[in-house]
Amino acid sequence: AVIHMRYPGGIHLELSEDANPNGGALFIGEKGHVRIDRGRFEVSEPGWKNVPLDNLPVQLDTARNHYRNFVDGIKERKRCVCDVEIGHRSATVCHLGNIARWVSQQTQTVGTRLAWDPVQEQFTNNALANTMLDRPRRKGFELPKV
Asked: How many CA atoms within 13 Å lie on the side-chain side of 62?
């Protein structure tokens, strides 16, 4: 299964179960690809590994150990590299992909387009998809309404 996601600004993300059977992530661009995994970094163009990253307009924080970064963040009252908002949005993308697959299976259609409102955290065009955002909860285990 391949899932296509389009973001504002023309960014296109393609999720494929077959792209990287060993885990990690494969990013394919117009000029080549980058494959990353825990402790592994491969590029299609050998010179890319030598590109200086110090002067790029966007600098990313690094954390070799997310657990340690989390504990240190609590102790030092600092924001983690992958804070709750980043973690939530990253997990949401995965859930949206799964929901897209489930909707296609339930309706026996291919290429179902779902429109997601990230502010309301609801699909704007598919009631079935919205039913998959939560599940029935047992008495005493309901989530509070906020």
From this structure: 5
Instruction: Give the pair of three-digit tokens for residue 105.
Output: 């299976």
Model confidence over 9-30: pLDDT tens digits?
888 888 777 766 677 788 888 8
Please give the structure tokens belonging to residue 111.
């290429």
Phi, psi of 13 (to 5 degrees): -115, 130
Does pTM surpass 0.90? no
Rounded Cα distance between 130 and 122, Å, is 6
Report the candidate in 141, 143, 138, 109 with the shortest Cα–Cα distance to residue 126. Answer: 109
Question: How far, in Å, CA of 1 to CA of 7, rounded?
Answer: 20
As a 3-state breakdown, the chain gives helix, strand, coil percent values, each rounded to 5, of 30, 20, 50
Tokens of 66: 């997310």
What ranges make up the beta strands (E) of the chain? 2-7, 11-16, 25-29, 32-37, 40-43, 116-117, 122-123
pLDDT single digits (tens) 41-67: 889 998 888 888 788 888 777 777 889
Structure tokens at 141: 């285990």
| Cα 57 to chain centroid, rounded | 23
